[in-house]
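Supplementary Note 3. Input sequence used for the single-chain structure prediction.
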Amino acid sequence: MSMNKLLYSALVLATFFSCAEQFTETYNIQGASSVSVLDGSKLYLKVLDGQELKSIDSCEVVHGSFGFMGRLDTVRIAMLSIRDGGMPLVMEQGDIKVTIDRMGHKVSGSPLNELLYGYMDKLVQLDNQRAELGHKEAQMMLDGIDERTIAEKLSREDQVLLMQIDSVETHFILDNLDNVLGPCAFQMLTAGFQYPVLTPQIEEIMGKASEKFKNDPYVRQYYKDAKDILARMKGELDDAPATAADPETPQP
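The predicted structure, written as discrete structure tokens, is reproduced below.
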């Protein structure tokens, strides 16, 4: 065989194996549930398709066990839908473990899922500390402490906790700008707003964000909408006094 034919054959084989390697990564999700009422339930693995969640896989809980497995074309955030609820998870290569019990749910076993649920656990701990302030208030009142003193003390403690939550959220997003966790955490942060707003926290994040993060579809749309809303609000505030003060404006 000539050298040209050998090179051609090598190139064909290299191309073949290169293409094959693109589809060798798989996701493997193994779950365990100690919640008996889930036995026989159908679980759905969903990903965002445009503006809607689309089911890409499903399984049934059998004797507390369930699982998903398939080819992985890209690392992405998915939602594991369980009856009326759900939990986020990262579809990435490796063995992903899902645990569901009466206390809640957890995803572990792969690097990004460990990071995501470590972050969510920190936020839950801080939220629980804020909730404890109500019990602390009741105990202080039983101890005969002045109401004004109680209010001032607990207000300061609540502000400290809110600042800690803000810091945890901001640092996590900035530490994960260029992987799927950054946009995911940003969406979790803004999901509770009635409409897109530009808080100091969001301005700080966007001021330090990478272009990849800014170009995430959700982040880009949210930021655009928030700026548009702010611009319209400023326009209304600027126009109203000028119109009212103009004596030449004809009355309807």
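Residues 111-142 form the longest helix (32 residues). Strands lie at 26-33, 42-49, 52-60, 65-71, 76-82, 85-91, 94-101, 104-108.
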